[in-house]
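Example 3.
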Amino acid sequence: MPPPESTATAAPTLAPRGLAATCVRQVKRELAIARRRGSEWINPLLFQALVIVLFPLGISPEPALLATLAPGLLWVTALLAVLLSLDALFRSDFDDGSLEQMLLSPQPLPALCLAKTFAHWLLTGVPMALIAPLLGLLLSLPAAGVATLMAALLLGSATFSLIGAVGAALTVSLPRGGVLLSLLILPFYIPVLIFGAGAVNAAIAGDPVTAPMALLGAMLALAIAGAPFAIAGALRISVDG
Amino acid sequence: MRGKQIGMWKLIHKLGSPKWCYQLCGRLQPVFWIAAAALLAVGAVWSLAFSPPDYQMGDSYRIIYVHVPAAILAQSVFLAMTFASVVFLVWKIKLADMAASVMAPFGAAMTLLGLFSGAVWGIPTWGTWWTWDARLTSMLIQLFIYIGIIALRGAFSRPEQGAKAVAVLTLVGVVNIPIIKYSVSWWNTLHQPATFTLTERPAMPESMWMPLLLMVLGFYCFFTALTLYRLRSEILKRESRTRWVQEAVK
Amino acid sequence: MTVALTGRGLACERDERELLHGLDLDVVDGTLLRIEGPNGSGKTSLLKMLTGQLAPTAGTLSWRGQPLARARADYRTALLYLGHEPGVTTSLTAMENLAWSAALADLCVDAAAIEAALQTVGLYGFEDLPAGQLSAGQRRRIALARLELIPRPLWILDEPFTALDRAGVAWLEQRLLAHRDAGGAVVLTTHHEFAPTACIERLRLGATHAAA
């Protein structure tokens, strides 16, 4: 029973060589896993949307009030949604031994971790930034803030993924690490929250957004430079003790 | 040069030996207890009875004699834990992890004391227990980081694994704390008009800052004495299987 | 193929519990070493130590004459490790799993090579099914297909016979002996008894404890 022609070409016809190619393969693997698991990756987004719906019901549907709260609410819910998705980041790889295979690869582990985290961002941060205008609509977010919100979410959610991956790597060997993970990671999310919401508020007020956006970019750069090593170290601790 | 290096290695290994450290801690401990008691007693009497009242805040400012040392210690303890974590991760000296593990609850307690004294001070000054003052806010966040570190250690069933995980988290924390502080003060200036804060005071007279200095030094000595004390019991607990502990306990 | 993994006076201690003590071992070309011992005698810890994941608490472990900690990059390009959990992702197909394994090994392989490897382990026709839909034995075979796909001189295998049927066991036994005879080296833990003619080396853990 030879495989159908189409899958043979879509599947790994040309396996990679070199670090960049390995990382590309790693990202493709994560995306394939997400595709196979069906709608699982959408759940954090649905969670965010549902929480957004709760606020007008719990506080007031008054558009003016919602508009002042909107930037903060969108950021807080995005943060919580990312947090929700983190526990699964390394869990199945830890359970089935894939993580151990990564650890023993001749390729540098921090690079593999960066690739894995990049895939996580593609599956959470990017769709989150894309649906943000829609959720903004529900909260009467002023139109002036929409573009900044999307850009800031793209930058900030990548930092969320990187810092969160450190926490996920630290807690992956714990059977019930989920709540602990939130406790460890939330304090480190505060700067991104502050500058992210600050950027949107500034855009709505008509102020320049360069400063908060630049700071978001700087935090992302720092996270890209440092987090992969912390993730790699934490994974080695979790797998081997 | 080479001889010097070997000498340093010997020293590091000697310091890393639990038995030797246990004895050293035992010898140093009384010195720090006495120093702490003396400094705190003199500092307390001076600051409560002899230093002048503030022209703006009256006597309520005196809470800085607890608040400021607690806040300083809350940060110093974190730095000490960072140092211990680096030593533990790089040189694999278990003693460093023991030190980090006994320091964390003290750091958390000092952060809590700083927060509590800040809240108490808020009543006469702002008329409320809590305002989102930049320093208090970042102190609250730091308290959560301390709690996270303590909780992470407790979550592991294998202590060695927990020790390494905590060391990594401490390093992540020390990189992030300045960023958190900076972002919180940026947020604070954006949202609040400048109020007078507890610690940023223009030139204090000598009669005010001298007792403050004594209190800070007293807190440091208290911290050192308590750490030495708790380190000794931690060494006994972790080394309970070794012959020297069994002989010492006998 | 040049395998030269040497351990001298190895000791392993986990959470103040001594698992191994004063262990010497040499893994060179043509070694087929079976590590034996009752549960909890430190078999998996020893394998983790030999793969360089766990540092020995005492003794030295060297690879081609260099301390293992320093020769790690070189060592990992010579090592193929299958753990207790062999690293087969249930939501990926056999093809995808092996393509990822090859990428981690920094190898250039094409689909035909992966298909050939799968055919050798008897998974022809199952290439494009998610591994979760296969039986435990078939998933084990996906992992074992790495032995065909990724040419490495040193194999360290933790319970590789688990879940295999009789034909699979026979195939794997022959494969291990063939690798040894071709100059490769194998270190494994298993409850499987090799044929008496196989003439393999044994290392009994727990015995060293009794002697010490």
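Residues 207-212 of chain C have pLDDT under 50 and may be disordered. The longest strand of chain C covers residues 17-28.
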